[in-house]
Write a structure and sequence with these properties.
The protein is α/β, with parallel strands linked by helices. The protein has helices at 13-19, 25-32, 39-48, 55-58, 71-74, 140-151, 171-182, 196-199, 206-214, 233-244, 263-275, 299-312, and strands spanning 98-100, 103-104, 110-114, 158-162, 189-194, 218-223, 248-254, 279-284, 320-323, 332-333. The structure holds iron/sulfur cluster.
Length: 337
Amino acid sequence: MIARSEPIWQSDDWQIVLKNSIRTLGDLCEAANIQIDELPIALQAEKSFRVMVPAPYLSRIEKGNPTDPLLLQVLPSAKEMLDVPGFVNDPLEEEQFTKVPGLIHKYHGRVLLISHAACAVHCRYCFRRHFPYSENALTQDQLIKVCEYIQADQSIHEVILSGGDPLMNKDEQLAKLISAIEAIPHVETLRVHTRLPIVIPERVTNGLLDLFKGTRLKVVMVIHANHANELDQAVATALYRLAEVSVRLLNQSVYLKGVNASLQGQLSLLRRLHHLDVQPYYLHLLDKTKGAAHYLVADELALEVYSQIQANLPGYLVPTLVREKPHELNKRRLDSR
Ligand code: SF4
């Protein structure tokens, strides 16, 4: 049964969990009780993108199983060091859409803010693993410039908080950010892209809920879950708390070899999301980020599995299969029909 009781998490609980996260390949192997191949090369991969795995996420990994789908999302691999043609540092060429530091304006009607440089988990397939965060930090001065940009463009109705992970900001920092955004009359929607309610459910504090409850903006949260095993009871509680303050919950996932590329993996995820009242939104084909080629699923297989998802589930549980292209002004839909 899903717990609907008041949150038991205190405001700083999540920061303690974050502080105690696993941060080295050695510690991760020990905690997961595994050994890995080609350790010296995997250690080089670790140097290029360090390990970050908080305890709640770690607790859902099956110990002693080197192919656990949650482990494979965070485990540095020697395969990351292969130079694969077509896999680059900035696959979506976001730099060209950065209108002021910290703000990406690519799609009509909405802008994306890099609202925090850090994440609570380091996903090895991440398309922003090489992003120049230091050049795009949202300082107080930068926030003023970002707001001036949004203020001057009446077509912008939605502000997307991304990162890094926007919920890495403390509640007080988020309060300032939300207050600056909601002061712009033509902005109607605040969208938050985050993995924190999954990897550290304690992040859904009463303070955070109050912020969402108190804003005039319509709040949409896109959680990024790739596998049903990520969505345990603590996550369920966090999501119900968010829904209770009228946060609309969506999920997007990345189609990842070894993680969720099977029909069964997809069906389990989508049914679990349904159970938790989270609407499936996008299923992304992998962005071709340098170091992530081993997660790539061939288009033919992706389309085959997708058509099976459509055959097995009602339409409202089927996410849209998309690929993002750097020069296209909307995501490209792919389906088998
Ligand atoms: S931006 Fe998202 S996908 Fe990338 S490392 Fe952070 S949480 Fe993972």
